[in-house]
Amino acid sequence: MIAREFIREFFHRQGLWMMSANALSKVFGFAAVVYVTRNTTEEAFGAYSYALNIVLVLVPFMGLGTYQSFLRYSSDAPGQSTKKDLFYYSHARGILFSIILVAALLLLSPLLCSSIPKSVEPFRILAFLVLTTLNMEFVKSYARAIHKNGIAAKIEISYAIILLVLTIVLTSMYGILGYAAAVSTAPVFAVIFYGWKLNLAGYKWASLDSIFKGFWQYGLFTTVGALLAQLFYAVDVFMIGQFVGEKATAVAIYRVAVIIPIATLVLPISISATDYVNNSANKNKPKELRDYIYNYWCTFGFLSLASLATLYFIAPWLLGVFGANYEDGAEVMRIFLVGSLGAHLLRVPFGNLLSAVGKADWNTYINVIVLTLTVLVCWYFIPLYGIHGAATAMAIMMWVSGGLNAMFFYFYLKSLK
To answer: What average pLDDT is seen over the chain?
Structure first.
């Protein structure tokens, strides 16, 4: 498949919708953060960021991997009725597990937020994000499973708009706690209409068809792998809170500095999400998989390089939008952008390919190695260089983790011969 055909197929699978939705989501999310940082103190935003980081680490536990397993095994369903039953089976159990997790987070909030006590209140509100996000992801996954990527994209756009509106209204009324409430409730309003449109209203305790052997094993490995991957993006903030003076302020500057580099991952993530079901169907076709990654590099890989290079040069100006104090994070942002290139070219595409072909357990093993190395590297760099050391450590590990994902995927392709 030549590059032109690759792009045409991407558009045919409504990939432009997916990419536009994710891009708009990041833009509106960016606008929301700008509004919050300009209308709250650095200390308040730092406490919120610390609380959010803890919650995001635990988000992979939502539903114990049920929505990921649903998306993976939906391609094996012989018909729409079986696919709908698989959705109900996954959704019911996922919601139950998430309710239990939210209750546990509320009980443990003083302990989990002990390093920055002011983060307890926003944490208690953000804990519900586990439940509301799971429900939204299930509806999006069902749309993708029936090859309606456009609906999944519209849900993402609705979520972004609702989040921005709620952020402005609630933050102006209740400060940083209002922002936490906006983040937690936006997913609920985003899926009401589309859940009804897809005929997903209601609750059904369905059984699991015997053809979906390995459903729970895949889900659990995906959960652990996602947890480790999330920890990868959280360990830096946690260790800044432990080793850097003026904790909340340092966390705030660092979090703002890395918002844009992390947001750029919308490009490879959108492509991977669009092509996930198709790549899953090609799991036993090595030529198609090789062609896919080659064409990805020739098209979107080049676009990633150009985009990140542009952001590198305008970093100080971009951070100035958040407020004059945040311009100090320009060098942090530039270091993180170098690491983000490794995520664009290697970590995201190969990690998602491993999941698509059913090797979620391999992703888990890789993430164990990467997280262990990340803790050690951060432990060395952060006490010496502060937030610049954190960015350096993360940049190094994004390339290392991407290299490991690529190597393991190469082993998978060799096994198909």
So the answer is: 87
